[in-house]
């Protein structure tokens, strides 16, 4: 037989374990987002990476074939900035050498009907950029001066939108 004291201690213990499990489950170990990645095109149609750094820094960017299965994500390009990107806008061509950038993995040919995602990162995993998913058809709808990026609404819904570079600079950091 359990005494009343033992039951209350046991209940508190179970309650504490339940709270601990709930906290552990909801406190993911993700890299905080403090930049927004996007894509654009140059006047000649070449694909550009676009990065709006909001408050800290970003060291580079990676483009991968997007997949819900992490084991099937394949890197198709990766770039490291010669100096950390500080708050503000940065753009660079993804398919050719660019001043201030080193291609740590040159861009592989992109194919139709494949979804790609571009995101930014820091070498020490202290900060990241939200990613943008796109297909070649999405790229083909862009004109020079436009940026496609994932915008987050006030209620937390994300959707890809296309805006002018000026609108991107003004709005991208509002929900990071």
TrEMBL record:
Supply the alphabetized keyword list.
Signal
* Secretion signal, residue range per the UniProt entry: 1-24
Name listed for the protein in its UniProt record: Lipoprotein
């Amino acid at each position: 037989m359990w005494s009343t004291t033992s039951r209350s201690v046991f209940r508190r213990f179970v309650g504490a374990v339940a709270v601990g499990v709930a906290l552990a489950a909801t406190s993911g170990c993700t890299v905080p987002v403090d930049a927004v990645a996007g894509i654009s095109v140059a006047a000649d149609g070449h694909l550009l990476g676009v990065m709006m750094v909001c408050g800290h820094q970003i060291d580079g960017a990676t483009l991968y074939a997007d997949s819900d299965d992490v084991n099937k994500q394949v890197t198709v390009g990766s770039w490291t900035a010669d100096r950390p990107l500080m708050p503000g806008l940065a753009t660079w061509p993804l398919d050719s050498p660019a001043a201030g950038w080193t291609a740590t993995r040159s861009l592989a040919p992109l194919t139709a009907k494949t979804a790609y995602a571009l995101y930014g990162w820091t070498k020490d995993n202290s900060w990241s950029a939200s990613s943008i998913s796109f297909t070649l058809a999405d790229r083909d709808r862009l004109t020079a001066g436009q940026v496609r990026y994932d915008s987050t609404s006030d209620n937390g819904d994300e959707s890809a939108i296309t805006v002018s570079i000026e609108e991107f600079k003004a709005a991208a950091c509002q929900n990071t």
